[in-house]
Amino acid sequence: MSKSKPAAKAAAAQPKKVVLAYSGGLDTSVILKWLQDVYQCEVVTFTADIGQGEEVEPARKKALQMGIKKENIFIQDLREEFVRDFVFPMFRANTVYEGEYLLGTSIARPLIAKQLIEIAKKTGADAISHGATGKGNDQVRFELGAYALMPNVKVIAPWREWDLLSREKLLAYADQHGIPVDFKKRKGGAPYSMDANLLHISYEGGILEDPDFAPEESMWRITVSPEKAPAKPQVIELTYEKGDIVAIDGKKLSPAQVLTQLNILGGKHGIGRLDMVENRYVGMKSRGCYETPGGTIMLKGHRAIESITMDREVLALKDDLMPRYARMIYNGYWFSPERTLLQGLIDASQATVNGVVKLKLYKGTIMCVGRSSKNSLFDQRISTFDDDGGAYNQADAAGFIKLNALRMRIAANLKKGRGKK
Length: 421
What we know:
Blueprint: H1 5-13, E1 17-21, H2 26-39, E2 42-49, H3 57-65, E3 73-77, H4 79-91, H5 109-123, E4 127-129, H6 138-149, E5 154-156, H7 167-176, H8 183-186, E6 193-196, E7 201-204, E8 234-241, E9 244-248, E10 251-252, H9 255-268, E11 273-279, E12 285-291, H10 293-309, H11 312-331, H12 337-349, E13 355-362, E14 365-372, H13 380-383, H14 396-420
Parallel strand pairs: 1-2, 1-4, 2-3, 4-5
Antiparallel strand pairs: 6-7, 7-12, 8-9, 8-13, 9-10, 11-12, 13-14
Helix pairs in contact: 2-7, 4-9, 5-6, 9-10, 11-12
């Protein structure tokens, strides 16, 4: 018997093969089995190492246990690509969201979306799936990136479809289908959710949903408290080429090695903790706690080297554009034409951002104590308060001031004239 038109249409809409962003944890393991049961399609798993500090190979073993073909399991070390192609370009813009957040989670999502699509194309998959909830930003970031790179891809977001909306229901589903769950997850694990990569660790949800609750010291994983940081400051030297750090204390390092080392240094000195309430793209406010030790040092150092190598108006233009650039990344528009266009402008501004910055790290603080560059625009002959030998004619300032005051003088005279009437 031939299928009716609606049935045929529904069958055509069913994905044949789906690539799942898979961590091997409770949520994505349940999603894997759910995709097999509900969509009855072939599943490809993708696990990324972006510096989260956890072993990724156990995800391969677990995927095999759940019936995934060996050739359909992809585990990739993306640490260098993450820092080189995503973190470094973002920091060239001195990017900060809502005055505080260094976008550690936001900047990782386009890389994961990119890899999901590359694997989909390689394996002939027609769909992707992720474990982001229907309340957060990550669903937007993953899917905007995916659609930008593969316009007709089907996206399956289980949290927007199923009724497994609690940990208890997830565990019950896992037990029902024989999905292995580690002891910590079964006992409830941490009283909040964590997301980690080489740039930061984020903490949210659970007990942190009360914005007036102060997290316990034990929550923080990669930074010591400023009170317990060393009593002796440490001065480090960062070498920049075209806006990117290429060496620490004179030692050449790869992008991922740079961030790894700065995380160690910053963590040791209690640098990079943040507790903030931010505005999610989907409309609600969310409280998050973040540890970004290396990124916090990078931001301070980059602003310091730009201060002597960048023209005043170019720097001001960058600062004007930065909040919009930050929103593009936060909201998931990394692959948008406007972000690409703006990135070209930002990268062009970095041609002269070369040199060395000295930073003093001490009990949660960072102070720049030196900066030098062959491209320095700092002219001591002109800026000195001593006799400059005629390098700068101070008398020129009078005309400059009068011209800039002209509009205010006209307005004042007009106001004065009106007062006489």
